[in-house]
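Notes, Module 5: Reading structure tokens.

Key idea: the token line is not a picture. It is a compressed description, and you learn to read it the same way you learned to read a sequence, by spotting repeated patterns. We will look at two proteins. The first is printed below with its tokens.
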Amino acid sequence: MQNLPLASEHAGFFIFFISVFGLLIGSFLNVVIHRIPLMMKKEWHTDCCELLAIENQGDEANSTPFNLLKPNSHCPNCKCEIKPWQNIPIISFLSLGGKCANCEENISIRYPLVEAVTALLSGLIALYFGASEQTLALLLLTWSLIALTMIDIDHQLLPDSITLPLMWLGILLNTQGIFTDLGSSVWGAIGGYLSLWSVFWLFKLLTGKEGMGYGDFKLLAALGAWMGWQALPLIIILSSVVGAVIGIAGIIIMGRDKNVPIPFGPYLAIAGWIALIWGEQLTQAYLDYAGITG
């Protein structure tokens, strides 16, 4: 893809702009991470009440708008609405000393961390791909992977409302050959889903336990749709390596119980993002190490 002339001449400004925009998106992602699971639970509760033909005790609460835009952001402790100047990414957290302006309850450090990571990864996308169609697409993918990672860590849940649109968007983009050809994209989606689906059922037949959730199948299908079936082995290997490193670090550094289940989605998301940025270099490095001509 050819870079847009203005951004090519002012690459530094373009990367800075995308990074700052990433900060703002990171603030919104905090809302997405918090609210989408709650929205899903409310929907499930309503559906169950309808199925069982029982009164929904939450009808009054359900009548109040609750989505990604409403209600306005507020302190979870005192319910005080957060003013716009108290909601500036990272800056407001630092200026308030990490506390609510009203009740002085501590604000989780995770909020500015999500904002900072979103800004950093957005800047890296801009650095590597410049002002191109690929950058626009990969920014959306990156932000979605961040949201999926945090939701899975919190709830061991990968919402269909994010994974399925990602898969279809990957196929749609590749009808124009943005990242790979259409055939590779379609087979990437199919192969991504079926590979983990097969592992799931083999593990369940051998142990009687479920080793992962269906959301993991859909996430790998989405990554396969974006990068093609050729990238699937690298993503699976990288996810295993990332999982091993994070798991061992969690046990040694944080004293995490090794018997506590760890969601696989974050490892897939991290591995998929690494494969998008450095996949070719990693593959070539392996071929060189193995003495195989790439």
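Here is the second protein, with the sequence above and the tokens below, as before.
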Amino acid sequence: MTQLEAARQGQITPEMKRVAEKENVTPEFIRYEIAAGRMIIPANINHLKYRLDPMAVGIGVSCKINANIGNSATTSEIDQELEKLHMAIHYGADTVMDLSTGGDLNEIRDAIIQASTVPIGTVPIYQALNEVGKIEDLSWPLMRDVLENQAKQGVDYFTIHAGTLQRHVPLTRNRVTGIVSRGGSIMAQWCIAHNQENFLYTHYDEITELLRAYDVSYSLGDGLRPGCLADASDAAQFAELDTLGELTARAQAMGVQVMVEGPGHIPYHQVAMNVERQQKVCNGAPFYVLGPLVTDIAPGYDHITSCIGATAAGTAGAALLCYVTPAEHLSLPNTEDVRQGVIAYKIAAHASDIARNRPGARDRDDELSRARFSFDWNRQFALSLDPEAAKAKHDSTLPQEGFKDAPFCSMCGPKFCAMKITQDGRALEDKLLAKAGA
């Protein structure tokens, strides 16, 4: 029985109880949101046998972030991918996607799943293409075998590009960047080569039955997402979204949990509209957005341009933010890129939770501010998203041990610290008032 089926039957699973504990809500609230299709717990029954700590994605709980890892045909090995995994989890990634496209994919994936305490997602079409080599040689029987193998390994959610239909492909003809989704471009070319409908769509119910057997969640892929601002919110993107709405309803009716992936490049003023449209079309299913990037002119800094859009998306109702690293569009991310991407997106998700007035979301901010005003440097570091970086930055410009705990930093020094002046002013005011009272 899947989490969705249990929720609809009024059952509270151990995974729902764990999520409720982590989110500081009641188990009944979690059950209700899952039953309504507004929340998912991506937890493959086989990953639960290892180290998976269940979590939830949905508008009713804190905004989550995903970190992508994975090798390419030319770069990275298992040890490096495990290092990226540990880095992502250490800094707060809530889910991780293995997007490996080279080497022994089964071995890499197995190592990642067994080492991960967070849900693992994949794009199974990558392995299918890796096995045949040519897009036109892809087939449903091969894809079915890949899906079953990955489900047995313990993958918690699959990105399936079943919404990229044959009739949608011509709508991308006049785009500046065409089809930028790897999965979307693969399925579009297959449709063109065979002059047939996308086999992920025609065999969708069979895929759903397979996912149901292992309680693998759908992450319905946006194969026609815009790859630049010029292509944002166009006919191709929204035609696919309408299909994803249909597929969401079909999977949920069969007892399988669903979240829906969203666009990657959107002008800032269109972000909220895109989230609201997805929520309406997909009947409130959790929205999983890549960024979105709100400008195209900052290669090397796209973790910044995208976390601006991610904050807007999270505030508008996106439930899972897929990080973008400084390596986006340029290279395969290394471990440091992963760290920077995760930190940027933890900021975006946290800012979204504050903007949505989630209970307790600002508590950590307030505690850190009190520590800052009292010059409790160690407490301030401990409350930071990246304590090591905060401490290193502070200590690097106050190298003498005697100044490490001083009531000032190197920017203001001992005479110009506004907070120290404020404290001295209050002390003086208290002294004068006490003297006047005497």
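Summary for the second protein:
- The longest strand covers residues 64-69.
- Strands lie at 39-40, 57-58, 64-69, 95-98, 120-122, 157-160, 217-220, 258-262, 287-290, 320-322.
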